[in-house]
Write a structure and sequence with these properties.
This protein is mainly alpha-helical. The protein has 15 helices and no strands.
Amino acid sequence: MRRKAVLTPELLPLVIGQFISSWGEWIFDFFILIYIYDKTTSPMMVALLTIVQVAPNVALSPAAGIYVDWHERTRILFLTDLIRGAAILGILFFDNIAVIFWLILLKSTVSVFFDPARISYITEASDEASLLTTNSAFSFIYTSTMALGPLTAGFLYGRFRMEWLVLFVALTYFISAATSLKLPKAVKENQNEFPDARPSFISELKNGLSYLGRDRRIQRVFLVSAGLIFAIGVFNIVEMTYCQSVLNLTDEQIGFLYSCDGVGLALGAWLIGMNRIRLKNTLLFGGILLAINFFALAVFRNYIVVIIGNLTGGIGNTFILTGSQTLVQLFSPKEDIGKIISLRYTVHGLFSLIASFLGGIALSRVGSVPLLIFLGILAAGISLLSVGMDGTGHDAVAADF
């Protein structure tokens, strides 16, 4: 049976832009992590970096979702990429850690508006039957750059001046902004041509939050995915210290290890796209694979085994992120998708923020290996809460009210 094409002309410019900017983003996220650690040698500074990257999601996502629902998605995509590129470019002019953190905070703040706009645009440009496959295609593109980005950064970092890496990353965002100008516009006439007819900001915020109170399936997705995001957030704090202090890896070896995680993420996206896993089982299998990765790192302190563990963890990570996103998209009415997706980012961001804070403290007190064992138990236990998850669309949910 021939598959229906999911990367339509409406989505192709977004595909190209996402590939280019994601490659640059992963290069930046990897080399800035090494740069901050090398400059400060402090796990708490690495945790602070994560907090700076996550905090805007917690504080601004609800407002960003309302803004996205009210305004044209393509304009938001263009402006956010433009500002993010400018923020990265600003790092060239400062060698102060505090100023660099402020610029990263600006980039993270603008990104709060980008992701809901991107997901809302994908939702509007796709039909429900192909939504999971479309999401997996975008996830494959994004995660393949995660494999390429750290590998590139690990090779280039130390061989070239950081300024050249910063210039390259800023350029990827500017190119992505240019591609968004080619996206067909999808404007909601009732909310853009007649702004006086819009509900108030507070009523829109209450409407978005109400889904957590009246839709048990959304509640369940949020609960399980947020718990697994917490485990991933703590692991992100542990991994760099583990690689440098336990395995004594070089920057190139760490870059290759992070790339293996990206390969696993891309493989997970491919498995979802090929319907090798049912949507309702994505969170269950994702949590179990994460647990396998954590236990492998704790027990086998061998570089080859760790590579295999990272591949496994990457697959699990994709199952969690793509599965939870698709479930929320299916359970949500399209007119409110921006608010609900942003609420998901808020919840995930809050749990990542807590994970960064607690992970930094726990790492300094108990060490990486006991913490990895705890994370393995936590991920396995949380994933069991998703057993029996439903995977039908919003129309089925509406029938319950």
